[in-house]
Design brief:
Layout: H1 3-7, H2 25-38, H3 46-53, H4 57-65
Helix pairs in contact: 2-3
Length: 70
């Protein structure tokens, strides 16, 4: 058996999108700022960054593009 192949065998992938395991604030902000730019909206304001970091994608899309709080 090739020892390098065994070393990189993946048993599990963990997605941490809410910042519990890893600080994902910057990544989430960049994701939604990219989406805003593609849809012709201004970048997130400070209070919006805090909101989207603690909500689901569905809540965030509704908040940013559904007329709530804009």
């Amino acid at each position: 058996m090739d020892m390098n192949a065994a070393k990189w065998k993946v048993s599990c992938v963990i997605y941490d999108c809410d910042g519990v395991l890893f600080d994902s604030f910057e990544a989430i902000t960049r994701l939604y700022n990219d989406l805003c730019a593609k849809l012709g909206r201004e970048p997130l304001r400070e209070e919006e960054m805090t909101y989207v970091h603690t909500r689901t994608v569905y809540e965030t899309i509704s908040f940013l593009f559904g007329g709530k709080g804009n």
